[in-house]
Structures are given as C-alpha cells and as structure tokens.
Amino acid sequence: MYNLLLTIFLIVCVILIACVMMQPAKNNSDAMSALTGSAGDLFAQKKARGFEAVMQIATTVFAVIFFLLALALVYLSSH
User: Fold this and answer.
1) 75 CB contacts (<8 Å, ≥6 apart)?
2) Average pLDDT, whole number, for the chain?
3) C-beta atoms surrounding 7 within 10 Å
4) Whole-number Å distance between alpha carbons of 73 and 51
5) Which of 21, 30, 56, 64 is the most buried (most CB within 10 A)?
C-alpha cells in the first residue's frame, strides 16, 4: 500500500510541477510596482478565462491531492 501511494505521489508531483510551469505569466514589467505595491492596478485584475482558468483549477486540484497523499504517506510510515 505504501509503495503504491508513493508511486502515485511521485506522479502527482511531476504533474503539479508541469501545471505550475504551464501557467501564463502575468507580465508586470514595471519594477517599481513590486516595491510600491502598484495600488493603481488594484482593480485592473481580470477574472481568469480559458486556458488560464483551466490551469488554475488543475493546479489547485493537484495541490490538494499532493497534500492529502503526503499526509497519508506520513500516517502510513509512522504505523
């Protein structure tokens, strides 16, 4: 059981890394906005649509699976 969960965990790790790397970049080329907080862009954020929305959902799902599998592996290794 432990080896099966560990194999699934490793597969989920690779998929999670791929999901994070495939997300579109949010190009904010102004370096000062990182320092000042860019208050002018507060309401400029748009809701994710299309590919970006799918990647956000996939990343969230695989992150939850990652944490649940990590907890299950810790539990099984301690017992």
Assistant:
1) none
2) 85
3) 10
4) 32
5) 56
